[in-house]
Amino acid sequence: MTVTSVDKDFDDLTLTLIADFDASPEQVWELWADPRKLERWWGPPTHPATFERHDLSSAGGVSYYMTGPDGERYGGWWQVTAADPPKSLEFTDGFANDDGTPNPEMPTTEVRMQLTEHDGGTRMELRSVFGTREQMEQLAEMGMEEGLKQAVGQMDALLAA
Amino acid sequence: MLTYNQMVVDKLTDEAVDDLFHALADATRRDILRRSARDEPSVSRLAEAYPMSFAAVQKHVAVLERAGLVTKERRGREQIVRSDHDAVRRARLALDRLEAAWRGRVDRMSHLLEEISDPDDPRTGGRDR
Question: Å from A98 to nearest chain B CA?
């Protein structure tokens, strides 16, 4: 098993996941830093991601979209807040409009990723926090009144979050 | 083992999407969902609202329940239907989905690292999409 532990804090809306890889921190960092490698794992197999812009410097940003089985696209963006290769990366992950600009009405999650050497391999500690409880509830509520299409789209988006 | 786990995660996720899709694909079920979001109707009161049998309405409620959209609670002789408005349960749902997404990602990262370290291994080379 690669995932060593998972902790979910329902009060703080935080997921903390620890995974151990049989590779160096530099190799694991490359999976984040090389957009062609990132594309091979960010989206689920049914919704592969394409990264159009990918700059991990703290002034930079990332934009991507995921393509569903019927060709439908779900846009996303990262705002990088801190990057220290090959040790850590912090960013805000959000939804984008069709034209790639951030959609301010949709929820965001804060992601903090840290890599440390561990037992000859690399330990990745990942922390993901929903922006606010309101945003999380918005995610959970959406689709109730808006019918089938949007509900399923929301679910895809949640899976991508 | 990793491939197996990946399949399980994908399958669970697909099943959850299928359940939701199926639950919302029916006008009666969408109406039941709206009514249970407004107040807490009993199954028998819902059955009065539609030109169908109690058993048929009960079946619709069961589909919504399986998709995680409503919960059913026995109160005396009545079965009360509630749409899931409890914040903790919603947090659980959102975090469970997030966990499933990240478990899938970690498995794919692991595959990719295997492939990079041993590109000639036919067990890993080019298989992962």
Answer: 23
